[in-house]
Please model this.
Amino acid sequence: MIALERARHQLVTLGLKDAAEVLDGRLEQAAKREPPYVDFLTDLLEAELGCRRRRYLETRTRLARLPFRKTLEDFDFAAQPSIDSRQVYDLATLSFIAHADNLILLGPPGVGKTHLAVALGIAAIGKGYGVYFTTMYRLVEDLRAAYEERRLERRMRIYLAPKLLIIDELGYLPLDKLGATVFFQLVAARYERGSIALTSNKTFADWGEVFGDTVIATAILDRLLHHSHVLNIRGDSYRLREKRRSGFLRSPAEADGRVVDSVGQLPTGQTGLQSNRP
Ligand code: ADP
Ligand code: MG
Model:
């Protein structure tokens, strides 16, 4: 057993902790199957590399601060006919990140904008890209605080470093002048350098209102859209659809047009029960 102890110690000393951990088991297998020496060695190293990669992805995913973990496989394209699945799978090749193109996901609440942005984020992490997720509200509040404490430039680096910056929920809250200005600075700084994936419930025509200023809204749109892919999602909220399926939510007709649960605002005119049921 002394030789085994030594081998384990040597692996640990070399920083191959995972290989050291599986050494016993692999040796036992090898004793039974008697594989060629080189197979035994690559098998052991493969175990080390696999563990390292998992840990690396786990760390990157944690650092990305995704609100949940859902992938493209979890996305039901049949439920959302306004989305061209080919376009999404094309995006999933992530060449848009290699080109520093932006991605804009537009549509009413619950249609899968955040889900798709997160899924592409996870795919990007898998390919080794740095990803960071934030909401428009958190982003602007953070940059505003940094500006007021005279450390905007330093703070901005957090949002400039990742190759893919996901900014969720533009348009739920209007911005004041300072908010609009710091957002413009961020978009301008990332322009042609790193991708932004942005979700919004507002059409571009409403952005003047969101930013409280059409000049700055135009300047932002100009840079965001120059190299961009836009996904315009229409249709019913997936959340409400699930609720309706379970019979929890009455149809809008039955409910007299009133909002009948706590899910939040209903996208007007798009919640009709026009048979999502099979
Ligand atoms: P949005 O950001 O457009 O408001 P989300 O992406 O948060 O909507 O979607 C709301 C919920 O419904 C999430 O749990 C999401 O995973 C799910 N969802 C939405 N669309 C689909 C879909 N087509 N297939 C599977 N799940 C979906
Ligand atoms: Mg969302």
About this structure: The CA atoms of residues 29 and 35 lie 9 Å apart. The radius of gyration is 25 Å. Residues 113-114, 168-169, 199 surround magnesium ion (ligand 2) (CB under 6 Å).
